[in-house]
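My main concern about presentation is that the manuscript never shows what a single data entry looks like. An entry of this sort, consisting of the sequence and the corresponding backbone structure tokens, reads as follows:
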Amino acid sequence: MGGILQFRHTAIAIAATATLGISTLTGTAYANHHSAASPTVTTSVLSRGARSGALPQSGLPASSVKKQSSAPGSADKFWTSERVRRALANPVAPEGPRTPPMSRPLKQSALPDVALSANAVPPKRSLASAPGEARTSAAQAQEATRSLRAPEPKKWPWAATGILFFETAAGRYGHCTASVITHSNKSSLWTAAHCLYDWAKKRWYKNFAFAPGFAKTAPYGYWDVKRVIVPSVYISKGDFRYSDMGGMVLQPRKGRSIQNTVGAYGYEFRSNSPENDNVASLGYPADGYHRPDSFYSGGAYMRYCYGNTVDASNGNPLDQRLEMDCEMGHGASGGPMVKNLTHGARIVGVNSHRNGDSHGNWTDNHLYSSEHGAYAVSVYKSL
């Protein structure tokens, strides 16, 4: 199939009890290129997934850090047009079993209650490479459960999202999505854990490069990565119900920080808070639910959905995943769920997984993020 990265399917089934948060848009019906869904529903991540065990802070769960050894400018040299083409056109297929366990809901006492937030930071206007604010399209202000192309990906706030390229331990290339998150180091990204670490192979990905505002080309170049961070429980258990989020720290490029160049989204990490209004999910999908792969141009363009996030398991206080209606698939992994995108953008989650059956077919239009509570705060404090 045409996705950049394949789904991983869990070994145990979960009931399809997630509530429908926002209504499906009416319009043209697209032929479903997947086979009929089986009644058994599992959860599958949107793409595959050192110094480990960083000390937890104030009762927070531990995070694991992997340093990258590339010198400044390595990404520009490594990511030739041919490698980029292969990463976009030749999806990384699963190698061996891809069955991380779907965790049982944790007791509330197992994780501390947290609340951490910060405002967005627009790019420095003094930099010639930083364009002014992008317009707000009329469509972006309306509910959109079937993704639209980002109107101005090279401008703030869209340009703070970009493609994350990487190489697997087997030498294959793939991509996810990542976004710049505000931090005192002015060099941090936010994405999904399975975009940084291959749980089944127990290996970190390598040769990362971030291309903000990517639209077939990289208008701001390819940015080198200094280190990557994921929750330690993701490494040990592949747990994407709670811990599928990750952070990265970039090297400066030509003396400039990524935050000054393209700006950075704020964030709002809170325990037990899956419901948010005015949320945009951004990503670089190569396929999607009930749309042909050809619609997505091989993942070369940023797309977005827009609506609200809701409690993915309404009535179960131990499952606080975020759910929104959006059809984006492979390649959109790690893209931000960001509220108030054009007027005070704050990350509240990341694109993590969809519902699928045992044959690898998506079964609905729901897109999920792990709860951004204690694990997210731990990763952020390790940046």
User: Anything to note?
Assistant: The chain has a mean pLDDT of 79.
